[in-house]
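Appendix B. Raw example, untouched.
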Amino acid sequence: MFFVHDNVIKWLNSFFQDRLSSDISFSLRNHSQWILSVKNHDFDLVFPVNKLFFIQSYISNFPCSCLSSDFSLSQFLPDTPLPLPGISSFTDPILTFDKNIAFLRYDIPGFIYWTINRIEEVYAPPYLLDHWNRFPAFHSHSYHNNYLLRPIVDEWIISLKKIILYFLPRFHFNKSSFDILVSHDVDVPLMYGFRNKRSFIRSIASSIIKNRDFISPFYSFCIYANSAKYLHPKDPYNTFDFLFACANEFNYIPTFYFMAGNTEPLLDANYSLDNASIENLLIKISSLGFNIGIHPSFNSFQASSFSFEVSRLRSKLSSLNIYQPSFGSRMHCLRWDWLHSLQMIRSSNLDYDSTLGFADSPGFRCGTCHPFKMYDVLSNSVTSISQLPLIFMECSAIDSRYLGLGYTEQCYQFISKLKYLCMAVEGNFSILWHNSHFNNNSDRDLFRFLLSKP
């Protein structure tokens, strides 16, 4: 027998109260209809329950229709056609009224649950994952149905607001505003430091051959020998002063995610939190009022080393008298395992995570650019963990292994579109730019463009 778990209803209530108003409440009638009610008002908004959104399995041919010409909703919808995942067709009119009740014949609550909690990923078969066990954008329903580059959840929230205002013109919704959230994963603090001899020689060769840099290798031996003591200003990856200056110029508070372990020597950092150079960097970041988070090592996204690394960074910050009101994570290489990652974050008592963006493409993996409380689908429980969905990572757009846009006008236009979409729904344009990805002036120009408000 089909039923929706009570905690799903609890999570949806919390979600809509956060996004709309504390006066909003959701209930479920006979597991067949959602009822959205407004406190102290004689008004209900009714949706059907679509069982497809609650099936605990991966559906390869998950349907999708498109709402483009329905007159009954025209005044409540965005200008562009709105995708309708979960149905192959819809009944026209999709919106009808009966006195103080509105009937919307699409399961918006179910769709939001399915999209934000990435149900298609939780139960995805292993053959869909990439070589690093990540669910790629290429296999997502949003990619194949052309809504990956749309904050579709946020668009539906705006439509719901318009419908409620049609009945209750004086109703007040929660306020939000557009912001740009900037973060940096500190995978490699120095190009020439914290390396073994073989890796050190390769870094020199790469600098000369790939980047045509004949100057910094001159300092490489000094950098290599003293990296544990201080971060040499001539090292190409030591861009921290530039990042600090940008934060002050554009008036934002960045977050720097540091590694505290090494579970894959070829892909993890070789620096230690006990290095004087890293300690001084942590102190400098904190003294500027910026945030520090944990960047769990490559294999810790599904291993017991996760909690050890979190504790290690927390202990180091405490020993340096660094205290923060909140502490969060971003998985290395954006690796995420729905069987383990969220559970480990919960058990480590973190406040938030900011992993959920696709590595192979910028966009709206969770259908939203607003933070939200995560729901643990496997244990059917509401969590206190906030997810700050990642919209843009520099290598996803620039590098040839992903979109390969480079520094072209197309890349600038792509970024402008993403920023505009986030601004249109009063959300956050959350970006990740590695300190080690400033190989030329084009990188710096593009980064500064990302920081500029539309």
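End of appendix B.
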